Structure formats: C-alpha cells, structure tokens
C-alpha cells in the first residue's frame, strides 16, 4: 500500500507541478506581451524625442537668425537716429542762414530805399 500512496502522492505532486507550470507559462506570455507593449511605447517615445530634438534645433537656428536680425535692426535704428540728428542740425543751420539772409535783405532794401531817396533828391535838385 505504501507504493500506491507514494504513486498517488507523486501523481498529485506532478499535477500541482503541471498546474504551476501552466500558470508560469501564462504569466510568461503576459510578461512578454507587456514587454512588447513597453518596447513599442519606448520606440514611440524615442521617435518623439528625435522629432522634438529636430524641432528644438530648428527653433535654435531661427532664434539665432532673429537675434542677428534684431542686432541689424538696432544698428539701422542707431544710424537712422544719427542721420536725423545730423539732418536736424543742418536744418537749424539753414534756418539761421535764412534768418541772416532775411536780415541782410532787409538792410539791403533799406539801403536801396535810402539810395532811391538820395537819387530822387539829386535829380529833383538838378531840375
């Protein structure tokens, strides 16, 4: 009878082992499926990272271009301001020259009027 009990025990142990082995195989399949999902997700993340890096590189290049444009614009603005200052100074000098010319013309007109009066007297005195 001991042999029968031993056989029964071994069969039960084998059945438990087979059940555990089936559970292990099922868990292994689930693990492999999860690993495949994780690998796909990681591949997607890596692809997105590559796209993000490319986008960042483009943005960095455009930022450098914008900085150069801004620097050029600031230089152009400085030159424009200098030109306007020079133009303003020239206009002020022109205004002073016109004022002096106007004063000179007034003096010339007064002298001409005095000359005309003198000539008229001289002519009137000879008649």
For this entry, give a set of tags.
single chain; 98% helix
Task: Please give a quick description of this structure.
98% of the residues lie in helices and 0% in strands. It has 127 residues and is mainly α.
Q: What's the structural blueprint in terms of helices and strands?
A:
Layout: H1 2-126
Structure description:
With 127 residues, the chain is mainly α. The chain has one domain (1-93). Helices cover 98% and strands 0% of the residues. It is rod-shaped, with a radius of gyration of 53 Å. The protein starts with a helix and ends with a helix. The relative contact order is 0.03.
Please give the domain count.
Answer: 1
Number of helices: 1
Instruction: Show unreliable segments.
Output: none
Quaternary form: single chain
Q: Report the structural category.
A: mainly alpha
Tell the overall outline: rod-shaped
């Amino acid at each position: 009878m001991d042999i029968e009990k031993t056989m029964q025990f071994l069969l039960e142990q084998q059945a438990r082992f087979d059940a555990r082995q089936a559970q292990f195989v099922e868990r292994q399949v689930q693990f492999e499926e999860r690993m495949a999902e994780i690998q796909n997700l990681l591949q997607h993340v890596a692809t997105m990272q590559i796209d993000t890096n490319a986008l960042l590189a483009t943005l960095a290049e455009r930022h450098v271009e914008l900085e150069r444009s801004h620097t050029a614009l600031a230089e152009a603005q400085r030159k424009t301001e200098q030109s306007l200052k020079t133009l303003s100074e020239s206009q002020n000098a022109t205004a002073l020259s016109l004022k002096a010319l106007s004063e000179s013309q007034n003096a010339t007109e007064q002298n001409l009027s005095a000359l005309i009066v003198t000539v008229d007297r001289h002519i009137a005195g000879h008649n």
